[in-house]
Design a protein that fits this description.
Blueprint (H helix, E strand, L loop, with lengths): L5 E6 L8 H7 L3 E5 L8 H14 L2 E6 L10 H7 L8 H17 L4 E4 L11 H19 L3 E5 L5 H11 L4 E5 L1 H7 L4 H8 L3 E6 L1 E3 L12 E3 L8 H10 L6 E3 L7 H23 L1
Length: 283
């Protein structure tokens, strides 16, 4: 397997990712996929998708869970609706993540991933303790499927995420690092955060963003922009990935599904940028 294979975030029939045909046209060898709707998480659907991937020369490197009722409309709504954190949907979403893990196994993939949500800051609270128990339950199921679980960054500071991982205390819990999310949520400078959590990083997103104004940072979104146009600093990001010893795929994510033509163009530009930077850094 080559160093830093380029990938894109894709979808089977749900979510924000591009369709497999777009990944094929871009000529990338890897994809992360958004888990499909419950009705299509079947052995037949998995076999058909794997067949299409094989024909395209593409490998699935992670499957992301997502849930009905999640909304990223603004930061407050995200906190209320996303992941395993909301208490009223926690049990049902735990069950759904177990089913997504089972589907991931059908795709011969060993990595399940998700946004767990805004982890409570009060680590002595009942909600936090129950979230720890729920996460352990999921991780034990994931382990039985021969898998690890990668939590996507953004909603917590690096320190809070490290504390949560330590409190869960399972050796198959890791991180999918998304530098743009740290900027979008206002939770920390991404390169500094990457160095802090580096030992847990097993997958990454290549996505870029600009900070919100200082007076609203953390309560209003930053702005996602094409790769290379934001505040991450892509060359510094890749050099830091090299520094922490990360050799896995560089998965491009561009979350503008409402404009598919622009999304495809921006991803094409991102592929070229990453190829250029990869050659420069490797050289």
């Amino acid at each position: 397997m080559s160093h830093w294979e380029i990938g894109v975030f894709a979808s089977i029939d749900a979510g924000l990712g591009v369709h497999l045909e777009v990944a094929q046209e871009l000529g990338v060898p890897t994809i992360q996929v958004h888990a499909p709707h419950a009705g299509t998480r079947t052995p037949a659907a998995a076999a058909a998708f794997l067949q299409r991937c094989a024909a395209a020369g593409i490998r699935v490197t992670a499957v992301f869970g997502g849930f009905e009722g999640e909304s990223y409309a603004d930061i407050a709504t995200t906190a209320r609706t996303v992941g395993l954190v909301p208490e009223q949907t926690r049990a049902a979403r735990l069950q759904e993540m177990k089913e997504i893990s089972d589907f991931t196994r059908l795709l011969h993939c060993s990595t399940v991933a998700l946004h767990i949500g805004f982890v409570p800051h009060d680590t002595s609270s009942v909600s936090y303790r129950d979230l720890i128990t729920t996460t352990r339950d999921l991780l034990d199921h994931v382990r039985r499927n021969g898998q690890q679980l990668n939590l996507e960054t953004g909603q917590e500071s690096a320190d809070h995420l490290l504390q949560f991982i330590a409190d869960v205390d399972r050796d198959n819990l890791f991180i999918n690092f998304d530098p743009a999310n740290m900027i979008l949520y206002g939770t920390g400078e991404p390169i500094e955060a990457l160095r802090k959590v580096g030992r847990y990083v097993r997958s990454v997103h290549c996505k870029d963003a600009r900070w919100a104004a200082a007076d609203v940072r953390g309560t209003a979104w930053g702005q996602e922009v094409p790769l290379g146009d934001g505040d991450v600093g892509m060359e510094r990001y890749l050099r830091t990935l090299q520094e922490i010893g990360y050799t896995g795929p560089l998965t491009i994510e561009r979350e503008i599904p409402q404009d598919r033509d622009r999304q495809k163009a921006d991803i094409g530009h991102a592929v070229t940028l990453l190829q250029t930077l990869r050659a420069r850094i490797a050289g």
